Known about the structure:
Layout: H1 4-7, E1 11-12, E2 18-19, H2 40-53, E3 58-61, H3 66-71, E4 85-89, H4 96-108, E5 112-116, E6 121-125, E7 130-132
Parallel strand pairs: 5-7
Antiparallel strand pairs: 1-2, 3-4, 4-6, 5-6
The protein binds zinc ion.
Amino acid sequence: xxxxxxxxxxxxxxxxxxxxxxxxxxxxxxxxxxxxxxxxxxxxxxxxxxxxxxxxxxxxxxxxxxxxxxxxxxxxxxxxxxxxxxxxxxxxxxxxxxxxxxxxxxxxxxxxxxxxxxxxxxxxxxxxxxxxxx
Length: 134
Ligand SMILES: [Zn+2]
C-alpha cells in the first residue's frame, strides 16, 4: 500500500522550508505579512488532497497571528494561531460528498477535521478531532 509520505515529493528551499508542487509557502502564511507559517505536516496534507482529488485547492485561511485571528472572529485558542490548522475548498467542486471524502482522508492520516457543509469548506488541524458545524 502506498502511504501519503511517498506520494508527495518532499523538497526544501535554501532556508529549509518545505516546497510543494502546487503551493507556495505564501498560501499558508499569515495574511498580514507577519511571516508566521504553518507546520510541514499540514502543508504536506494539503498537497495530498490536491493530488488525490486532482483539483486546484484554495487555502482560505492558514496561520493567523493574534491580530488577524481576532479580526476574522477566530476562537481565542484557535489552532490557526500556532500554525496547526488551515481552511480550504475546491472551487466549484464542494458538496457534502466531497467534504466527507476530504474528512475521511484526513482521519486516515490522523489529522483533525471540522466540516462546514453549509459554508462548503473544511478545516484541518492538529490535534485530531472530527466535527461537523452547520
Ligand atoms: Zn499576522
